[in-house]
């Protein structure tokens, strides 16, 4: 009986996660302009960099890892404010907080959808745009893998800031101030991985650190976001 109860609980948690994931994915699909904003910003910003800095290949090659990573960070940050906003506005957030379903998995579903519609497209687009910045071929794999790990971490960390500011009508600036210091280590090791790969060095250490950041964020960020949501809802 105890084993059967545990199996049913496991299925219930999984079903709740899948239901939340599907719902949030459908909501995101209905707001196509919001989905396009981070990608359009990323595309325009990368396109303008050679015009504003220098079109010389040597200069762009040197700056490319940092430029792509900074723009990817800003593109991810651009879409964070709406992570819990629609749920707060229509009252769904209060239902989530009192629901018997695990809030942890509901938050994880929202973060996963955010990464799929913002972080993953930026990661896939980055190597293509890096051609415009004359990034050497040695840096493309490092750029892709580091952004894959880094954007996932940024979505998780950003969920905490979004939860803290969800009750504020104009919380975008405060959200940026909260999460930006936490993004800096991810930015440093991500850009360092690409730069090291371009120079022919091993990037195992940088990727290991990014993986550790992601593992830590998966465990701690949803718990912090849950507490922040309860504070915001009660406030």
UniProtKB/TrEMBL annotation:
Q: Where in the cell is it found?
A: Cell inner membrane
Q: Which molecular-function annotations from GO does this UniProt entry contain?
A: heme transmembrane transporter activity
Membrane-protein topology: Multi-pass membrane protein
**Keyword entries, A-Z:** Cell inner membrane, Cell membrane, Cytochrome c-type biogenesis, Membrane, Transmembrane, Transmembrane helix, Transport
Residue ranges crossing the lipid bilayer per the database entry: 35-53, 59-83, 103-133, 139-166, 173-195, 207-229
Classification via InterPro entries: Cyt_c_biogenesis_CcmB, Cyt_c_CcmB_bac
One of the record's GO cellular component terms: plasma membrane
> Source organism's superkingdom?
Bacteria
A Pfam family reported for this protein in Swiss-Prot or TrEMBL:
CcmB
Name the GO terms of the biological process aspect. Answer: cytochrome c biosynthetic process; cytochrome complex assembly
The record's comment on protein family reads: Belongs to the CcmB/CycW/HelB family.
Its biological purpose is as follows: Required for the export of heme to the periplasm for the biogenesis of c-type cytochromes.
This one is known as Heme exporter protein B
């Amino acid at each position: 009986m105890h084993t059967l109860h545990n199996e049913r609980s496991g299925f219930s948690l999984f079903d709740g996660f899948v239901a939340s994931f599907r719902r949030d994915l459908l909501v995101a699909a209905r707001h196509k302009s919001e989905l396009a904003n981070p990608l359009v910003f990323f595309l325009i910003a990368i396109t303008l960099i050679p015009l504003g800095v220098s079109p010389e290949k040597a200069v762009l090659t040197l700056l490319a890892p940092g430029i792509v990573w900074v723009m990817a960070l800003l593109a991810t940050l651009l879409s964070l404010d709406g992570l819990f906003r629609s749920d707060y506005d229509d009252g769904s957030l209060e239902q989530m907080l009192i629901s018997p379903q695990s809030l942890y998995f509901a938050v994880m579903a929202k973060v996963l959808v955010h990464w799929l519609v913002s972080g993953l497209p930026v990661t896939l687009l980055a190597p293509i745009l890096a051609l415009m910045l004359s990034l050497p071929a040695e840096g493309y794999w490092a750029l892709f893998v580091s952004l894959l790990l880094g954007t996932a971490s940024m979505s998780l960390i950003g969920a905490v800031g979004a939860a803290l500011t969800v009750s504020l009508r104009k919380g975008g600036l405060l959200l940026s101030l909260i999460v930006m210091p936490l993004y800096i280590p991810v930015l440093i090791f991500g850009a360092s991985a690409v730069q090291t790969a371009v120079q022919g060095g091993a990037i195992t250490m940088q990727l290991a650190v990014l993986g550790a950041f992601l593992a830590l964020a998966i465990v701690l960020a949803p718990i912090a976001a849950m507490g922040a949501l309860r504070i915001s809802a009660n406030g």
